[in-house]
């Protein structure tokens, strides 16, 4: 969850939206497809970690790897609260990249719904290369909101500068000498909802409204299952060269 989406009192025990729950499972699935490229001594750098809900979850499944959670929006007050929610000992939280411990371990980069918040994403990636965070063989995992035509007031509220296409992502990573390993759209089922929101046909619904149901409630579990199945099906069809549009897209690439 982005820091800008939450209030201080909601950080510790928020009700997680099914989108967020399905997304974390799908991202874990994607990373596990590349376990053979990740050594036990490798480290993961999660830039734009938000409230650390996702990075803490991932760290639990990669207990031999260190995770660096970085977010410039983590003030001292929020940082102290978020730190209490970290249950994995292999997660360290910082509010800037200057504190990142630069050792000889290979680092893999995670940019989950981050690039859309950065006005000049090319300058940003270039700065990461100059800081030697990325090295040959490093894997970069990226998710972003998809399709410029769906850019809306909700995006502005979340401080997004843009939405992306798969072509945009491929051109971006290739410019910095990353080899795309796989890419796809996902969350096809959310497109209809976004269309209705965009054209104001859901008059009583507000994008980004706080979810009011626990993760164990029936409605949360049903929607989470549908969204996770949606993401897996979109990826499967993409492997067959069948492109299904989705409200999000991802790319996994490796530094040459």
Largest sheet: 7 strands, mixed
Distance between the termini: 31 Å
Number of helices: 8
The protein's oligomeric status is single chain
Give helix and strand order, one letter per element, not per position: HEHEHEEHEHHEHHE
Would you count the extended β strands for me? 7
Mean pLDDT: 86
Strand order within the widest sheet? Answer: 3-2-1-4-5-7-6
- The residue ranges in which pLDDT falls below 50 over 5 or more consecutive positions are 203-208
Our estimate of the beta-strand percent is 15-25%
> Any idea what the radius of gyration is?
18 Å
Q: Helix content range of the residues, please? A: 25-40%
Structural class comes to alpha/beta
Q: Give the overall form.
A: globular
Features:
7-stranded mixed beta sheet, 256 residues, alpha/beta
Explain what you see:
With 256 residues, the protein is of the alpha/beta class. The chain is 35% helix and 17% strand. It is built from 8 helices and 7 strands, in the order αβαβαββαβααβααβ. It has helices at residues 18-32, 53-61, 76-84, 121-130, 153-157, 166-175, 189-198, 218-239, and strands spanning 43-47, 66-70, 91-94, 107-112, 139-145, 178-186, 248-255. Helix 4 (121-130) links the parallel strand 4 and strand 5. Helix 1 (18-32) runs parallel beside helix 8 (218-239).
Task: Compose a concise summary of this entry.
The protein is α/β, with parallel strands linked by helices and 256 residues long.
